[in-house]
Write a structure and sequence with these properties.
There is one protein chain. The protein is mainly beta and 182 residues long. It has a single domain, classed as CheA-289, Domain 4 (OB fold (Dihydrolipoamide Acetyltransferase, E2P)), CATH 2.40.50.180. Helix content is 12%, strand content 39%. The chain contains 3 helices and 11 strands; from the N terminus they run H-E-E-E-E-E-H-E-E-E-E-E-E-H. A 6-stranded mixed sheet has the order 8-1-2-11-10-9. Strand 4 and strand 5 (78-84) form a beta hairpin.
Length: 182
């Protein structure tokens, strides 16, 4: 019987080429977001936080909730609170129609629906293109934002879901789960 040498060094001899390495690095440095409209503003959330997008349907209201919590939705046996982003940002209740959309997102262990006017696009961008929210002239609501993406003619504000949902009404949601740009 002949002895066979087995290489256990881990070097397969299949090193990625320069082009493959550039593609791998580009994929690591790229993030994707679901963008949507609320009023005149363009916003986005990390696509990895999105479970699904649904058309508006009637929901069940609950007593003694903050005004921006519209109620709950039964999503295949899961009770999902619905947040009216227009109300959360500006205190104005959305007059929801079948044209409105609910984006179902994960925030830590919590599943939440975000009532928005319309879904716009899926944005793919490099991390370096995500800019910090300027500190000058920030309103208290700027705490809901974690970055900005400059598109051709407009800015898209990336929401910090954990900041948006902080408060007693949501209990202890995992802190700062989404505060890092991925």
């Amino acid at each position: 019987m002949e002895a066979v040498a087995i290489d256990t060094s881990g070097d397969t001899g299949l090193a990625p080429t320069g082009l493959a390495m550039n593609h791998l690095q580009s994929a690591v440095d790229e993030s994707q977001y679901i963008s949507f409209r609320v009023g005149d503003g363009q916003y986005a959330v990390d696509i990895m936080r999105c479970r699904e997008i649904k058309g508006w349907t009637e929901i069940t209201g609950l007593p003694n909730q903050p005004k921006y919590v519209r109620g709950v939705l039964n999503l295949r046996g899961i009770v999902v609170p619905i947040i009216d982003l227009r109300n959360r940002f500006w205190g104005e209740k959305t007059d929801a129609t079948p044209m409105h959309v609910v984006i179902i997102v994960n925030v830590g262990e919590q599943i939440v629906g975000l009532l928005v006017d319309a879904v716009s696009d899926i944005l793919s961008t490099e991390r370096s293109q995500v800019k910090d929210v300027p500190e000058a002239g920030q309103s208290p609501d700027a705490r809901y934002l974690k970055g900005l993406i400059a598109l051709d003619e407009e800015m898209v504000a990336i929401l910090s879901l954990s900041s948006l949902l902080q408060g007693e009404e949501f209990g202890a949601i995992a802190e700062n789960q989404d505060d890092q740009v991925r």
